[in-house]
Design a protein that fits this description.
The chain is an alpha/beta fold. The protein has 2 domains: 66 residues, Alpha-Beta Plaits, CATH 3.30.70; 152 residues, 3-Layer(aba) Sandwich (Rossmann fold). Helices cover 38% and strands 23% of the residues. The chain is built from 11 helices and 11 strands. The strands form 2 sheets. It has a 7-stranded mixed sheet, with helices on both faces. Strand 2 and strand 3 form a beta hairpin. Helix 3 packs antiparallel against helix 4 and helix 4 runs antiparallel to helix 5. It holds the Pfam family HAD.
């Protein structure tokens, strides 16, 4: 395999020899000052590489030598804390003074401590009952920010011929705006019920949980005529694990430990555009 080392900052030359030795690689390619590729690396050395890179704030990935981004046909992304930096429901809750309470449930759900995502979402949305729906627009305008490298990653994926899917346990209010803003091909998320300009504390229709995320990835692959092994799935929380397991390449982005351990690749330091630099 090739071992790809990335960093948001220049990588010190002092790392080259230790990494080559740990990877049991005899050839190093300096792509640029933030990207190294070690040729013919031993993937069985992953635990040692993981420990070294974690200590020195480097991201690593073992990649098939001839693989290209254009080998894939779809990149599927979670929204909250993946494509964007916030958890939208936590920020909505801030407008009714309940951010800490809602955020605690969100965090426990993403770590996998609350096994029933439907229950955790229902509990959190119920706390929003009576909130003026204008709070959603304020969250989008004032607080929603794209994760580093998001636009570059999407542009690179499109240029390589990939379709894009945004699938979220969050809300259509945000996914539809991001779809239009970023040119995303497909979206799936939850719909908040709004009556007389206020949130009712309920979700309309099927809740997008881990199983629905995985099913949406499979259905989108079928729609565009590819095998799920030609999909890339990116996420950060435990409700992304089933979707990530369906894909040929899974990327944990600044993710919870349970997700980092299960993913093909983890980006703890670089932006989402680190995906483009793997190939």
């Amino acid at each position: 395999m090739n071992l790809v080392i990335q960093s948001p900052a220049p990588i010190s030359d002092a790392h080259v020899k230790p990494l080559a030795a740990l990877a049991r690689s005899r050839e190093t390619a300096h792509i640029d000052d933030t990207l190294l590729r070690f040729i013919d690396a031993d993937p069985l050395q992953r635990p040692d590489i993981d420990a070294y890179c974690g200590t020195h704030a480097l991201d690593y990935a073992f990649v098939e030598p001839q693989s290209q981004l254009s080998d894939f046909g779809l990149v599927a992304m979670d929204m909250d804390s993946t494509l964007i930096t916030i958890e939208c429901i936590d920020e909505i809750a801030d407008f009714c003074g309940l951010k800490a309470e809602v955020a605690a449930i969100t965090e426990a759900a993403m770590r996998g401590e609350i096994k029933d995502f439907n229950e955790s979402l229902t509990r959190r949305v119920a706390l929003l009952e009576g909130l003026d729906a204008s709070a959603l627009e304020r969250v989008y305008e004032e607080r929603l920010r794209l994760s580093p490298g998001a636009e570059r990653m999407l542009e690179g994926a499109r240029a390589a011929g990939l379709k894009t899917l945004l699938v979220s346990g969050g809300f259509t209010f945000f996914t539809e705006r991001l779809k239009a803003r970023l040119g995303i091909d497909y979206t799936r998320a939850n719909t908040l019920e709004i009556l007389d300009g206020k949130l009712t504390g309920k979700v309309v229709g099927e809740i997008v949980n881990a199983e629905v995320k995985a099913r949406t990835l499979r259905e989108t692959c079928e729609k565009i005529g590819i095998d799920p092994q030609r999909a890339i799935a990116m996420g950060d929380g435990s409700n992304d694990l089933k979707m990530m397991a369906e894909a040929g390449l899974s990327v944990a982005f600044r993710a919870k430990p349970v997700v980092r351990q299960a993913a093909s690749v983890a980006f703890n330091f670089v932006g989402l555009d680190g995906l483009l630099r793997l190939f």
